[in-house]
């Protein structure tokens, strides 16, 4: 099964067979609600959301069952970090701008087949009739929960819902299982697909996807897994600011004193002065018009944060995906330790799984260890690496060889790991602009992107570094890494506000699956969710 992360669309025909070029080319961009979806009544209350989650869960179970019957279970090497054998092409070119560039392509081995990795498969056969027998109606919250502020009430309702889920076992209708009589009493385990429990995280993730107009049958296990990881990754930030924020907002109509408390909280979360001023001014403008009850205040705050995160998309293109059947070259910049190499491995992994032919250029030749590290990530993601064996060799030569190899192999996405040292701005700028000149000369028709990899745990310090790169590298976006490692996830707002660059991907863990395309809606919901 190919899930195209860059398009966030899971089309049923891909389910039948690995996505072909045409299918994955045909997959529509990130799901804008279709006309019928726009007409569809938005889900109203938690009963709707529960039905949606139940339908989504059942669909995932059915897809797993179909996959199980078609494909032998296969370990996803990338997720078990087993290293698959890949080709490391040693590039011998020495390159100076004075010389004419060598023309003949490098001889290449057969392209290793991209690993189509079926998802991990459930153990027990699952049938289509399996119904999660959960009472659809949600019991009206009792008096105790009524007295809670709205966000705590939602939590209490969710807990009640979860208890209800646990209390109602799945009963296999007689027709479904010949051995129904011997079927042991269904326990909690039946409520979960291996690796995907029907739990609070699932319900929250399904709600987020439903609110974006998705249909239950479109929900994929990959998206649910990522949303759960994103929310978990933002736990530190949420605990740090959100509970205080909701306590402030929950006291009643938002007033001037509360707004000042919010200002202190945002600064504490590394949102930065510029972004904080923007949020506070927007809130103050709004409370001049009307006193905001808690749930309205939180909803309005979410809207302000989303608008701020989407601001750069007025200048930069909204969707960020490699163009199919053409050479895309993504230059990855950032200081050492920001997570560049890890990010290259993660992007290579989702590119492979999304049906793109990918190649990596190890052009950060300053440290031999950095080249070795890129090779390790290449083997984890099953993507070949073009590297130069020499110590401290010319990065431009590696880029040249990598483009030659990419062109001869019809590669669609070439990821270039560039130097990250900030020894001084001039050297950095010279090196990056030289690489850019080669790319423009050697691959004039390629789609070029230049991404800054930024360590979220550095907070405002990271931003000062980012400003140097922003001048040197003609950046078209940011990859924000280590969100799981900081209580200052607010730095995402500062990045966007101060650099006016869109966040394109976020990293929330050291594993190869811990990076996904950025969605402002999902980020803000994970940040402010109860
Ligand atoms: N917790 C967490 N750790 C991360 C994340 N991304 C990268 N790391 C870790 O950060 C450290 C640095 O990552 P690298 O990819 O080596 O950083 P780099 O920018 O390539 O640094 P150099 O290799 O020195 O150029 C490694 O230990 C990674 O495992 C993330 O999203 N979360």
From TrEMBL:
UniProt organism field: Chroogloeocystis siderophila 5.2 s.c.1
Top-level taxon of origin: Bacteria
Reactions accelerated catalytically: GTP + H2O = GDP + phosphate + H(+)
Protein name, UniProt field: Signal recognition particle receptor FtsY
Entry GO terms, CC: cytoplasm; plasma membrane
Region ranges (Disordered): 1-47, 61-126
Functional summary from the UniProt entry: Involved in targeting and insertion of nascent membrane proteins into the cytoplasmic membrane. Acts as a receptor for the complex formed by the signal recognition particle (SRP) and the ribosome-nascent chain (RNC).
Family statement drawn from the similarity comment of this UniProt entry: Belongs to the GTP-binding SRP family. FtsY subfamily.
Listed PANTHER family: SIGNAL RECOGNITION PARTICLE RECEPTOR SUBUNIT ALPHA
Cell compartment(s), UniProt: Cell membrane; Cytoplasm
A GO term for molecular function: GTP binding
């Amino acid at each position: 099964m190919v899930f195209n992360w860059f398009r966030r669309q899971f089309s049923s025909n891909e389910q039948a067979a690995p996505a072909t070029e045409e299918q994955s080319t045909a997959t529509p961009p990130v799901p804008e609600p279709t006309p019928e979806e726009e007409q569809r009544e938005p889900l109203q209350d938690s009963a709707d959301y529960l039905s949606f989650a139940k339908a989504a869960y059942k669909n995932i179970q059915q897809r797993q069952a179909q996959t199980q019957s078609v494909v032998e279970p296969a370990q996803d090497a990338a997720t078990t970090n087993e290293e698959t054998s890949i080709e490391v092409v040693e590039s011998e070119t020495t390159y100076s701008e004075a010389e004419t560039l060598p023309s003949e392509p490098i001889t290449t081995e057969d392209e290793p087949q991209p690993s189509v990795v079926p998802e991990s498969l459930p153990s027990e056969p699952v049938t289509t009739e399996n119904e999660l027998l959960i009472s659809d109606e949600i019991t009206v919250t009792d008096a105790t929960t009524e007295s809670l502020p709205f966000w705590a009430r939602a939590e209490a309702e969710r807990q009640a819902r979860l208890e209800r889920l646990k209390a109602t076992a799945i009963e296999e209708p007689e027709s479904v299982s010949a051995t129904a009589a011997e079927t042991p009493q269904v326990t909690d385990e039946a409520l979960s697909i291996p690796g995907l429990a029907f739990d609070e995280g699932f319900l929250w993730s399904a709600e987020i996807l439903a609110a974006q107009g998705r249909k239950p049958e479109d929900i994929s296990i990959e998206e649910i897994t990522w949303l759960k990881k994103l929310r978990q990754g933002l736990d530190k930030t949420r605990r740090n600011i959100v509970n205080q924020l909701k306590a402030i907002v929950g006291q009643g109509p938002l007033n001037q004193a509360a707004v000042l408390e919010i200002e202190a909280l945002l600064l504490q979360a590394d949102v930065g002065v510029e972004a904080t001023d923007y949020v506070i001014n927007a809130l103050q403008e709004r409370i001049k018009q009307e006193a905001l009850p808690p749930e309205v205040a939180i909803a309005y705050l979410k809207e302000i944060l989303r608008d701020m995160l989407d601001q750069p998309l007025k200048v930069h293109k909204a969707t960020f995906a490699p163009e199919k059947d053409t050479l895309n070259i993504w230059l990855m910049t950032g200081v050492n330790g920001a997570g560049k190499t890890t990010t290259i491995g993660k992007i290579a992994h989702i590119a492979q799984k999304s049906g793109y032919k990918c190649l990596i250029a190890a052009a950060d030749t300053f440290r031999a260890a950095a080249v070795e590290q890129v090779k390790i990530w290449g083997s984890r993601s099953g993507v070949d690496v073009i590297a130069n064996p020499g110590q401290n060799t010319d990065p431009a030569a590696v880029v040249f060889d990598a483009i030659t190899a990419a062109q001869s192999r019809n590669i669609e996405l070439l990821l270039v790991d560039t130097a990250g040292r900030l020894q001084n701005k001039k050297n950095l700028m010279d090196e990056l602009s030289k690489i850019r000149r080669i790319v423009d000369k050697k691959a004039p028709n390629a789609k070029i992107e230049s991404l800054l990899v930024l360590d979220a745990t550095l907070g405002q310090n990271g931003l000062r570094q980012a400003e140097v790169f922003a001048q040197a590298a003609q950046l078209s976006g940011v990859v924000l890494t280590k969100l799981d490692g900081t209580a200052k996830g607010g730095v995402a707002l500062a990045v966007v506000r101060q650099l006016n660059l869109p966040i394109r991907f976020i990293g929330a863990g050291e594993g190869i699956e811990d990076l996904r395309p950025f969605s402002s809606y999902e980020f803000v919901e994970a940040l402010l969710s109860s």
